[in-house]
Amino acid sequence: MRSLIGVLTASYLLVVAGCSDNTQPTGMPKLIPVTVTVTQGGTPLEGATVQLIALDSANSQWAAGGSTDASGVANFVTLGQYQGVAPGKYKVTVSKSVSEGGPSAVAVDSPSSISTTKTFLLVDPKFQSFETTPLEIEVTEASMVLDTIDVGAPIKIEQKLG
Questions:
Q1: Is the model's pTM score more than 0.90?
Q2: How many domains does the chain contain in total?
Q3: By residue range, what is the domain housing residue 80?
Q4: What is the DSSP string of 24-76?
Q5: Average pLDDT along the chain
Q6: In the chain, is it the N or the C terminus that has fewer CB atoms within a 10 Å radius of its CB?
């Protein structure tokens, strides 16, 4: 019985190992590890989304981004799973928002319930758009720790729908 369990366990592990595929997509360039620290008014900005948008059309298919941790540090991944960034020039966008509120006092499943949820931008909108961000970087052939990016004073702007 023990040998049967051992064989089944070994077979399972082989199947699971065979299913994980870390092969990069065809044509993906060598990725360079890139890290950036984001601050807001000099304080680390936790929970921000940082995106790199290629200025070179040859890199446009290799979208890269990351999220900041409690220290404001983001490590970039390409296509959501491959560590690093393709060499090239990029615009950098930084965004963070928060939702506050919730359903009104009327029952949540009631057709007459009104949502009081509001969404607020917590980073200056100029940093959130390719067209308006002043931030640009160039990723070269070596591992890079970018200069700290400060996105200005803390803000809280309510997003209006429509």
A1: no
A2: 1
A3: 27-158
A4: PPTTPPPPBPEEEEEEETTEE-TT-EEEEEESSGGGTTS-EEEE--TTSEEE-
A5: 83
A6: C
